[in-house]
Amino acid sequence: MKLTTKGRYAVTAMLDLALFQDQGAVTLADIAKRQQISLAYLEQLFGRLRRKGLVESVRGPGGGYHLAQPEYAIRVSDIIAAVNEPISTTICGGEAANRCKGENVACLTHDLWEALGTEIQQFLNGVTLAALVAQHHEKQFGQEHGSPLRDHRMAREKTVVAVAGADKHVSGS
């Protein structure tokens, strides 16, 4: 699976917007400068983000952008989907008609890669912009709170361990 610059830049720009919007509308020029992303590229991304209802534009003097929803309501998966970034880990892109080898024939490891794609999607569904903001503040200001991403990962690992333990118990019966 490869997440292209479109998805990465969109998430980065949205995090920047979330971090600076309390100072007023944030201009794309400011985001471009801070994050070293082309202004023209940001304009394209923010057009898509606006159409999907993730950001709102403010016109006039002091104009720019702000989040259209609360940080806790915007998931990383929403941002990536808004810029039309597919999250596909299979060669065929998950299209049954094409499949990996064509003619509706899957490669030997298709199910493995498809399951990985599902795990990635679930992970990105579980990470909000608020979690990224909290993680940034923790790193920058040295707050002693748990990292939302680390907490998510730990909860996931506990689930995997619990499921693995249940499998052992069932197969050992």
TrEMBL record:
Keywords: DNA-binding
Pfam families: Rrf2
Coiled coil spans: none
Protein name as annotated: Rrf2 family transcriptional regulator
Organism name: Thermithiobacillus plumbiphilus
